[in-house]
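Fill in residues.
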């Protein structure tokens, strides 16, 4: 199945973390501090491989705290997995750990979370967290590990994105992408984030900055959010790389407590893992419905064509906006369409 071959199967290998980010959806869902059972993780990897997955995505909590990490990766590589992507806050990445990750060669890539410039980073991740993350990312790059920066976009990011991108390019030679993630609101507003969420206006600023940075040769992507390239194209600045929907066919995550969800940030789960469940979920009507194109809200929307062209098949989820009834995507696309820039060829 092509969609699965190209997808990452996600494992949340621990909810334990040495950080206490004020925006963290893992903390926000009230997850108990625990590691995934190592046998369960191996079973999931074997079943995932049989289902057609060839790439694993490991996240947490802080995955570098999981004691089984390296043996698990070695077993998965022996099984035939071809690629691994690890999300880390970078603070535990020293030369030795970076060397172990580098031993997987081009099969290994990581993201290190930097929330933007130092003040913004520490506002979300705590005082004293910026320098260790920077040092960890440098260690990884020096060891030859492919690395991206993951930057969560709160409302203060868009104005500082160009300078942050320029700083990152100078500071981290060999860095792959600067990947921006729209800050997501949590169920029942478990953490107070509403004031920090992007408004449609902020989103437009973000898209403009990110798109122009790509034009200037920087690699800036917006993660799992095709609304961004849709808005960029509607503004006549189509330089953002394509972006897939957060909920898409083949996307599955096994959480540390064994619950299965579509994405790591999903606020609903699909059941407790047992052997055979991954295939059952993928074949189920419930899962298919989550991926379906929206035929109600979108069919009457004048932006439908622009959105579909970028792969935005459903309205933005409720957790992308701070309130109100208008879908976030419509607010963004109305602004993009009214931006006065037309997509004419020179
Ligand atoms: C959950 S963390 C786990 C890995 C590691 N501890 C780290 O800090 O990168 C993975 C990514 O999710 C992001 N994240 C956490 N909560 C978020 C939220 N509410 N909205 C958007 N991204 C979020 C983090 O900033 C981080 O880049």
């Amino acid at each position: 199945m092509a969609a699965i071959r190209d997808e990452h199967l996600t494992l949340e290998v621990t909810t334990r973390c040495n950080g206490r980010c004020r925006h963290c959806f893992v903390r926000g869902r009230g997850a108990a501090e625990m590691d995934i059972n190592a046998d369960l993780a191996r079973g999931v990897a074997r079943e995932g491989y049989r289902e057609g997955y060839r790439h694993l995505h490991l996240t947490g909590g802080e995955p570098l705290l999981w004691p089984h990490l390296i043996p698990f990766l070695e077993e998965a590589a022996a099984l035939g997995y071809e690629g691994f992507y690890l999300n880390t806050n970078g603070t535990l990445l020293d030369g030795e750990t970076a060397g172990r990750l580098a031993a997987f060669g081009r099969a290994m890539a990581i993201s290190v979370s930097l929330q933007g410039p130092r003040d913004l980073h520490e506002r979300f991740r705590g005082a004293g967290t910026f320098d260790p993350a920077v040092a960890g990312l440098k260690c990884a790059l020096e060891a030859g590990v492919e690395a991206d920066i993951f930057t969560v976009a709160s409302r203060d990011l868009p104005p500082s994105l160009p300078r942050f991108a320029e700083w990152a390019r100078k500071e981290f030679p060999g860095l792959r992408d600067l990947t921006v993630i729209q800050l997501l609101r949590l169920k029942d507003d478990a953490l107070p984030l509403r004031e920090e969420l992007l408004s449609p206006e902020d989103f437009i600023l973000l898209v403009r900055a990110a798109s122009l940075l790509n034009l200037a040769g920087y690699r800036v992507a917006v993660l799992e959010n095709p609304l961004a390239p849709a808005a960029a194209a509607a503004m006549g600045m189509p330089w953002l790389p394509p972006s897939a929907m957060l909920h898409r066919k083949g996307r599955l995550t096994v959480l540390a407590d064994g619950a299965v969800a579509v994405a790591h940030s999903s606020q609903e789960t699909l059941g407790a893992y047992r052997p055979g469940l991954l295939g059952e979920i993928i074949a189920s009507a419930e899962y298919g419905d989550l991926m379906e194109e929206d035929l109600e809200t979108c069919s009457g929307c004048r932006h439908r064509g622009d959105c579909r062209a970028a792969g935005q098949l459903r309205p933005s989820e409720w957790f992308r906006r701070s309130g109100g009834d208008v879908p976030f995507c419509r607010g963004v696309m109305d602004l993009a369409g009214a931006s006065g820039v037309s997509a004419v060829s020179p």
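The two ends are 42 Å apart (CA to CA).
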